[in-house]
């Protein structure tokens, strides 16, 4: 089942009622995202927000084999672009608010794979239905202990006010950040082209008939949904009861991949991913 939190976007554009959206993730993926090493958050549902997204680490303590497997995976995909000096987090804390990223867009994996200007390492991260494009990672100097929830949810006001004062930019990952920026740039170009084409068509139709064409107006509405969600599908909206249930975290990108999918990734060992998947199985 796809979950989209409250059904809207905290980053503006009128996509819902999020004010300080937060997502709970398993470790080590949560820290890898906040540290800028992980540039795409893969989900089975489209991102319901654009803009700042706070990242919270779930309570499950990651196994050492899982951490090593994912660090080896990122070493391999960065090596594709000649990057070998990755610095991974020293610790992977759990039940903590870690920091935030900027979600600049969401596309389907097929579209991501077609972007020629994208670094190959970034392309190899996008192996799930929907790819949330993340950049501008910031981490908290002191991670906050807090409880997480399903899907995307709002941070409590007091926690947000304290967290906003403790953010620092992530340093030393210029190559990783450049890859994320390339994805964001490509997405924005696509967004702008869609807006330009739709506006031109709408103007042409309206001037020829003397009034706005109803089909053009409908296309404008569809454009807003497609350019934001990547698929034109609205993320499902959980009930208030579901949002308040204790955390049962939706799988992260690496968890949701099947072993057959992973074998298709160039340069990646099936053994690495099998170890990661085993480490996530509930005891």
Automatic annotation (TrEMBL):
Residue ranges, annotated region (Disordered): 193-268
Where along the chain is composition biased (Low complexity)? 196-209
Matching entries from Pfam families are given as: ASCH (PF04266)
Residue ranges of the ASCH domain?
Answer: 23-125
Q: Where is the composition biased (Polar residues)?
A: 238-256
The family database entries (InterPro entries) matched by this protein are listed as: ASCH_domain, PUA-like_sf, TRIP4-like
Ranges of compositional bias, category Basic and acidic residues = 212-223
Query: Which protein are we looking at?
Result: Uncharacterized protein LOC105133856 isoform X2
- The organism named in the record is Populus euphratica
Lineage from the top down?
Eukaryota, Viridiplantae, Streptophyta, Embryophyta, Tracheophyta
